[in-house]
Design goal:
Blueprint (H helix, E strand, L loop, with lengths): L3 H4 L5 H14 L5 E2 L11 H12 L12 H15 L8 E4 L2 H12 L5 E6 L4 H8 L3 E6 L10 H7 L4 E7 L11 H11 L6 E5 L15 H4 L7 E6 L12 E4 L2 H12 L7 H12 L3 H22 L14 E2 L4 H5 L7 H12 L1 E2 L1 E2 L9 E4 L4 H15 L2
Parallel strand pairs: 1-10, 3-4, 3-5, 5-6, 6-7
Antiparallel strand pairs: 2-8, 7-8, 9-12, 11-12
Length: 392
């Protein structure tokens, strides 16, 4: 009855965890929610005021499909000042969130049978968005021994004549690890030899970063790849604007224009007054982002410490985003009746009221993702409940 296309696509596992936690809370259960992929902060007031003013001024009609010129200019300015990358307005597409930007890209670029390289652990939506374009995800497994980073040799082995795209994400969801400039330069040396391969760099967590080295994406490391790199970005994470649904993409003019055509036949423009709020976010005081990042860093430090004090649990430190991604394989192996990370996650939420996301959703069985985007009190309570089960 339904299309074969949709039958191969899974609902978002993170949304499923959040929905189950909300259901149990509504039933009166005491649930510690560590599954959320959004900041636990309110959108800064100057952003909300800008959107309110736009509403009061009657800015409620259609806008250009690719976004209002003033927001696109703010995005151009952001890339110039933060990343040293120059774009024209016609190389920018404003969309309804970062996920929408990636969807537009895959629909505009990929043909049935094309291959897309995705290092794991990956954001849950990458493979399914590729499948919706009738292309084939090619997963490169990484692990703690490589700090969840793909190597040049890994990419060289994975590339075939069918390879059309590779997706990089740094800082990473779910691991929080970041690629260094020298690592990206090495990846670029391989990709340079395969001109048919485009590179999507998902930079949505760019400013939620506490690594010793400053942020760098592959285009900053390899400027000669300018005509093959698409930057996927947005305001959701850095400015606590997940519900506003404003993302953006920057890249080669021809590809961006094709993505615009796809968008024109789906959503048309992003919400008018939300675009005004996004412009205020990019152009306004960035102190909020710095303060929020320091809070996340503090939470991260004690959560990683406490996780590593649990019996047979190993957690690499992150350098950004707001997640930690501990290896639970050894711990799970000692729990009677629990065979994997999925069963472990179900046990935690149903029996002890801790909601987190199984690593299998990110292509990393045996791991779990904990969000630190909640209060210190909730984090301590959640860790105490884990300690009661696993021991220290």
């Amino acid at each position: 009855m339904l299309s074969t296309r949709v039958q191969g696509v899974k609902p978002s596992p993170t949304m499923a965890v959040i929905a189950r936690a909300a259901e149990l809370k509504a039933a009166g259960r005491d649930i510690i929610g560590l599954g959320a992929g959004e900041p636990d902060f309110d959108t800064p007031s100057h952003i909300k005021e800008a959107a309110k003013k736009a509403l009061d001024d009657g800015f409620t009609r259609y806008t250009p499909v690719d976004g209002i010129p003033s927001l696109k200019q703010a995005i151009v300015n952001k890339f110039a000042s933060d990343n040293g990358i120059e774009y024209a307005l016609n190389q920018i597409l404003v969309s309804c969130g970062g996920k929408h930007s990636l969807f537009n890209l895959t629909q505009a670029l990929l043909n049935p049978g094309d291959e897309v390289i995705i290092p794991s652990p990956y954001w849950v939506s990458y493979p399914d968005i590729v499948l919706l374009a009738e292309a084939t995800p090619v997963i490169i497994d990484t692990g703690t021994e490589s700090e969840f980073k793909v190597s040049p040799e890994d990419i060289e082995r994975a590339i075939t004549p069918k390879t059309r795209l590779i997706i990089l994400n740094s800082p990473s969801n779910p691991s929080g690890v970041c690629y260094r400039r020298d690592e990206l330069t090495a990846l670029g040396e391989v990709l340079r030899k395969h001109p048919q391969v485009f590179i999507a760099t998902d930079d949505i967590y760019e400013h939620i970063l506490w690594a010793e080295e400053p942020f760098c994406n592959i285009l900053m490391a390899c400027p000669d790849l300018y005509d093959r790199v698409i930057i996927l970005h947005g305001v959701s994470k850095s400015y606590a604007m997940t519900g506003w649904r404003i993302g953006y993409a920057a890249g080669p003019k021809k590809l961006i224009q094709a993505m615009k055509t796809i968008q024109s036949q789906s959503t048309s423009n992003p919400t008018s007054f939300a675009q005004v709020g996004a412009q205020a976010a990019l152009e306004g005081d960035q102190g909020f982002v710095r303060e929020m990042t320091q809070i996340f860093k503090g939470r991260h430090n004690f959560v990683v410490h406490d996780l590593n004090s649990l019996k047979r649990v190993h957690c690499l430190p992150a350098q950004g985003a707001f997640y930690v991604f501990p290896d639970m394989r050894a711990a799970i192996s000692e729990l009677d009746g629990i065979k994997d990370d999925i069963a472990f996650s179900e046990y935690l939420i149903e029996k002890v009221g801790v909601a987190l996301v199984p690593g299998s959703a990110f292509g990393a069985p045996g791991f779990v993702r904990l969000s630190i985007a909640t209060s210190e009190r909730e984090l301590h309570l959640g860790l105490e409940r884990l300690a009661d089960i696993l021991g220290t």
